[in-house]
Design brief:
This protein is an all-alpha fold. The chain has helices at about 10-20, 25-35, 40-45, 65-105, 120-135, 140-150, 155-160, 165-175, 180-190, 190-210, 230-235, 240-250, 255-270, 290-295. Helix 4 (about 65-105) crosses helix 10 and helix 5 (about 120-135) runs antiparallel to helix 8.
């Protein structure tokens, strides 16, 4: 089967209209499609299709309504990115400190390069491989130049983690033996398996936000690991929803001030777009305010 023929912006607008989308201002629609991309925009209209396999939209579906959903998603990504960064920096410090104190106190202080100190050796070597790629990318940085000339390109773990992606930070923790994982997780007050899951979830959310992927009307994997009591008490919370991932972000923020700010920004954003979005599409239950605030108090 041949690929679809590319459409001009005018044809894209007409295609939306042919599928039943109401467009009052043709010029506005065309202008927005030059900035957004038809395929991206149409993803926010999936919920308005008459049936999942049908390209036609339900009666009353308007271009402006779909654009409001798009704006909500974009602003939500912007909010989440700020707080994921706080968590990312925090866990770079926690993971590098915890492992270094356990394994790197004795000379030559380089046990974080030895695969025998890691349970999942294949994944650990993938992290090292990615590090070499990243060092090449940052080859002009003072950090990389200094350690290349003085330490034959080896770095202390607390330096190494500043070059690794959040995905590799998450993977590095997952590679460790239980003894090191538990020491790090105990200081945070959760189990090592839960922390491993939460780091994985947040690395997925971070990548989606960084690459402007759609959060709205999307399932997330891996499923969030909540404690059994929370699941029994809150069966309406789906652990593959954006709401579940937001709860993880709130739980893993390192201080009350950051949690309060994130909650206020989310609630303000929801209030701003309340008439335009279906909160169930991102997994928000009816008692979402109560559940969010419980992550602080």
């Amino acid at each position: 089967m041949e690929l679809k023929m590319p459409f001009t912006y005018e044809q894209q607008v007409e295609q939306l209209r042919n599928h039943g989308m109401e467009i009052v201002n043709i010029y506005k629609a065309r202008t927005l499609l030059t900035k957004i991309n038809y395929y991206r925009f149409s993803g926010y209209a999936l919920q308005y299709r008459k049936a999942p396999e049908d390209s036609d939209y339900m009666d009353g579906t308007t271009f402006d309504r779909v654009y409001k959903v798009y704006q909500f998603d974009a602003e939500l990504r912007s909010v989440l990115r700020k707080y994921i960064e706080i968590v990312e920096i925090y866990f770079r410090a926690q993971i590098s400190y915890g492992f270094s104190m356990a394994k790197c106190l004795a000379p030559p202080h380089d046990q974080h390069y030895d695969e025998n100190n890691f349970y999942r050796k294949k994944e650990f070597n993938e992290v090292l491989s990615n590090l070499e790629r990243d060092k090449n990318y940052y080859k002009d940085s003072l950090i990389v130049k200094h350690h290349k000339s003085k330490y034959n390109s080896k770095m202390p773990l607390w330096v190494m983690v500043e070059l690794l992606s959040f995905s590799d930070i998450s993977k590095l923790f997952g590679c460790m033996y239980n003894s090191e994982q538990n020491k790090i997780a105990d200081k945070i007050g959760i189990s090592a398996s839960t922390l491993e899951n939460h780091l994985h979830c947040l690395s997925v959310l971070r990548n989606k936000c960084a690459h402007a992927a759609r959060l709205y009307n999307t399932k997330f994997y891996p499923p969030v690991k909540f404690n059994p009591q929370f699941l029994r008490t809150n069966p309406e919370v789906k652990n593959t929803s954006l709401f579940a991932y937001i709860l993880v972000l709130l739980k893993r923020l390192p201080d009350k001030e950051s949690k309060d700010r994130l909650i206020n920004e989310i609630l303000s954003l929801v209030d701003k777009f309340y008439k335009d979005v279906e909160l169930a599409r991102i997994g928000f239950p009816s008692n979402y305010v109560e559940l969010i605030r419980k992550q602080v108090y």
